[in-house]
Amino acid sequence: MSEQVTxxxxxxxxxxxxxxxxxxxxxxxxxYVVGLVVLGGGYLGWQYLxxxxxxxxxxxxxxxxxxxxxxxxxxxxxxxxxxKVVGVIDGVxxxxxxxxxxxxxxxxxxxxxxxxxxxxxxxxxxxCLEPIKK
Length: 134
Hints:
Elements: H1 17-50, E1 61-63, E2 73-74, E3 81-93, H2 94-104, E4 113-118, E5 123-131
Antiparallel strand pairs: 1-2, 1-3, 3-5, 4-5
């Protein structure tokens, strides 16, 4: 007689509930991180596309504006270009800006206008602007 060989059936253990919960938590955290990155990128993209002054760097040009909310970064060859950023000072408190407006941009002798953007009563950044001679 011939012997019959029965294939062995290998049982796999179910993943433990702890491993399953950890994987689920990891996926949730990854989802939150991806969401924050997307939101942050969208905000920065909006600032860039809208010409928000907060993204201006030395050498950029700014339109003529009456209030800071109307200030926009524009192409320096544009008819709207009225000022050029000659200096950016990070981390200026609102009180320092108010008290030292005339001296904050002293390192930039061609400045004629200074703008501060920040949290009321807190800290922000200042842009030293020189007029564009046309």
